[in-house]
Amino acid sequence: MYSFGRKTAKNPFIGGFVQENIRGELFSSSRCTIISCSVTVEQHNKLKELINKIESKKQDYSYNLLGLFAIMFNKQLSRTNAFFCSQFVATVLEKCDIVQFTKPPELIMPNEFLEMEDFYVVFQGSLTEYFLTVDCRAVEKNTCISSHGQEMYRQSMAIS
Predict the structure, then answer these.
(1) How far apart are CA 4 and CA 89, in angstroms?
(2) Under 8 Å between Cβ of 51 and 158
(3) By residue range, what is the domain housing residue 20?
(4) Would you say 121 and 6 are in contact if contact means Cβ atoms under 8 Å apart?
(5) Out of 7, 35, 43, 81, which residue is the most buried by the measure of CB atoms under 10 Å away?
(6) What is the pTM (predicted TM-score) of this model?
(7) Buried/exposed code over 61-100 (b: 16+ C-beta within 10 A; e: otherwise)
(8) Distance of CA 84 to CAs 3, 40, 87, 147, 157, Å?
(9) Distance CA 81, CA 11 (A)
């Protein structure tokens, strides 16, 4: 799963673009809501291309901690190559022509993905429970987009 979050488990203030190990210790007791939406082959290809581009230059990306505080006051704070989780997911969805939001990605909060018309809840509960009830190989083969472990989308990658 790809994410904009902490780069090390012990320091939540140093963050950026990371590939999370959702089976690791950091997420072992996490609760999540996994949501899904359908995408076309073209959208899926755009998604993979965009993530690969970001991953190849991940050192140029950082966590938008200031933007996270700004959103609490409904203020938009854009920073070049800096994202918080739901901002990243919203940006990727827009750039890949999957969703068009009525407000900037800097103002999208995680719960808003749950309210979107073409999205549906696949699972709610602990990640441990999820891995016990789902064929784990499918998680690795399907692309998932997630925002703080809050939501995921089908096809074959993983973003948070």
Answers:
(1) 9
(2) no
(3) 2-159
(4) no
(5) 35
(6) 0.78
(7) bbbbbebbebbeeeeebeeeebbbbbbbbbbbbeebebbe
(8) 9, 26, 5, 9, 19
(9) 20
Total structural domains within the chain = 1
Structure tokens at 130: 């999820």
Query: What sign for the dihedral angle of Cα 109, 74, 79, 64?
Result: negative
Contacts of 73 by beta carbon, 8 Å cutoff, 6+ apart? none
Please name which of 145, 148, 26, 8 lies closest in space to residue 89, comparing C-alpha atoms.
145
Is residue 55 within 8 A of residue 2, CB to CB? The reply is yes
**Tokens 């995408």 map to which residue?**
39
DSSP codes of every residue in 104-153: -GGG--THHHHT-TT-EEEEEEEHHHHHHHS-HHHHHHS-EE-STTS---
**35 and 54 Cβ atoms separated by less than 8 Å:** no
Q: What backbone torsions phi and psi does residue 145 show, to the nearest 5 degrees?
A: -115, 130
Q: What is the pLDDT of residues 88-114, one digit of tens each?
A: 999 999 999 999 999 999 999 999 999
Average pLDDT over the chain, rounded to an integer: 80
Nearest to 50 by CA among 84, 104, 91, 8: 91
